[in-house]
Design goal:
By secondary structure, the protein is an alpha/beta fold. It is built from four helices and 26 strands. Helix 2 crosses helix 4 and helix 3 packs across helix 4.
Length: 273
């Protein structure tokens, strides 16, 4: 049976695994949709969870954190269930972190092993991968996609519908309204200045794969190619069996927003995109 403090409040459809620990002042509201919590989770104190929300195993939620609350949309009925929130395993939500549930067909989704520092915010319908770190005050607009091993610095801001690809780092006080390709560093608003070389070195990639990523970065951000030329070059490399180039081709195919510009403020040129 779950260990529930006397001052905690559970209402509606709330299902807790036997070894869940619920600290003082926590509120679980299952009246809009069910709240389901897996084993090994700990709600330290004064957390708020509302449904429909499903939480996996081994998560730790600190005071003031709020999970599954409705989208911040003036036209959305806050008491409508929507598509909900799905959280994976072994995540940490520090003080006052907030994650809003989805309002479209696909729920807001959090993967595994992520760390959300104080006051980090994940907007509705966002998709966060695995091993992501959001520092204090980092913010995701609705419908954003944050892929694996991304680091978002303090008070960084990602515009709605933007994709931040695998291994990227976004510096504090910066952000993007454009899609960012894999293993890049955003160090000011809408500006990629370099590649996340440290991240590449610390990854589980082979030396050949790291070199391929660096070669692709040069094609994208150290040449005078237009975006259509970049796409064509990378596609040709992928057709010859270059798996790294194929990852960037997949990025372009999934991208719905402009490509984030590089260190020279005019490029890559968007002619014919």
């Amino acid at each position: 049976m779950a260990d529930i403090h006397d001052t905690a409040i559970l209402t509606g459809d709330v299902q807790l695994a036997d070894d869940v620990v619920v600290g003082p002042g926590c509120i679980f509201d299952g009246t809009v949709g069910p709240v389901v919590v897996g084993g090994g989770c700990r709600f330290v104190a004064r957390t708020y969870v509302t449904g429909p929300t499903t939480i996996g195993t081994g998560n730790t939620i600190w005071p003031g954190a709020s999970l599954g609350t409705p989208p911040q949309d003036v036209n959305y009925d806050p008491f409508k269930a929507g598509s909900g929130l799905i959280i994976g395993n072994d995540n940490v939500f520090r003080e006052c972190a907030t994650v809003h549930r989805g309002k479209t067909e696909a729920p807001t989704r959090i993967g595994d092993g992520n760390y959300f520092m104080t006051s980090a915010h994940v907007g509705h319908d966002s998709q966060v991968g695995n091993g992501v770190v959001m520092a204090t005050g980092a913010m995701l607009g609705g419908h954003t996609i944050i892929e694996d091993k991304v680091i978002l610095g303090g008070a960084s801001t990602i515009h709605q519908f933007v994709r931040i690809s695998r291994g990227c780092m976004v510096a504090g006080l910066s952000g993007s309204t454009c899609d960012v390709p894999p293993w890049c560093m955003v160090t000011s608003v809408n500006r990629i200045t370099t590649q996340n070389v440290v991240g590449l070195r610390r990854s589980e990639l082979s030396e050949d794969e790291v070199k391929s990523h660096r070669d692709v970065f040069k094609i994208m951000y150290r040449s005078s190619k237009t975006v259509p030329d970049i796409k064509a070059t990378l596609q040709a490399m992928a057709d010859e069996g270059d798996g790294v180039a194929g990852e960037y081709v997949a990025f372009f195919n999934a991208s719905t927003r402009p490509l984030c510009p590089g260190p020279n403020r005019s490029g890559p040129r968007r002619s014919g995109r």
